[in-house]
């Protein structure tokens, strides 16, 4: 069973690498990802240190960053609403 799972993992990795390197865009997606990470961190930073809501602090960790990366600005609002609902 482990051999089958390892084989599937290796085939998946090879196919992913083929897709990444065969596209003409190359590594442009890394630039976009980096930009989204910076904007997500900036959005959370603005909420934390803006002074509008002093009792709210959203930590910068992989879970909150992933939420904001996937959802964008509504992700920041979602985290803010969850934090206010829990307090």
By secondary-structure content and strand pairing, the structural class works out as: mainly alpha
SSE run: HHHH
Alpha carbon gap, first and last residue: 47 Å
Can you tell me the number of structural domains? 1
- Poorly predicted runs are none
Protein described:
This is Pro-sigmaK processing inhibitor BofA family protein. Pfam families: BofA (PF07441). It comes from Paenibacillus puldeungensis. InterPro entries: BofA. The protein has one domain (26-86). Helices cover 77% and strands 0% of the residues. The chain has helices at residues 2-22, 28-49, 62-71, 73-86. The longest helix has 22 residues, at 28-49. The N and C termini lie far apart (47 Å).
SSE blueprint and pairings:
Blueprint lengths: L1 H21 L5 H22 L12 H10 L1 H14 L1
Helix pairs in contact: 3-4
Keywords: Membrane, Transmembrane, Transmembrane helix
Organism: Paenibacillus puldeungensis
Pfam family, one: BofA
Q: Summary?
A:
The protein is mostly helical.
Question: What key attributes describe this structure?
Answer:
87 residues, mainly alpha, 77% helix
């Amino acid at each position: 069973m482990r051999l089958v799972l390892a084989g599937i993992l290796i085939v998946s990795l090879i196919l992913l690498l083929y897709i990444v390197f065969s596209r003409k865009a190359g590594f442009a997606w890394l630039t976009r990802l980096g930009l989204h990470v910076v904007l997500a961190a900036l959005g959370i930073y603005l909420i934390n240190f803006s002074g509008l809501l002093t009792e709210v602090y959203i930590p910068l960790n992989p879970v909150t960053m992933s939420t904001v990366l996937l959802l964008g600005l509504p992700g920041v609002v979602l985290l803010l609403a969850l934090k206010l609902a829990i307090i």
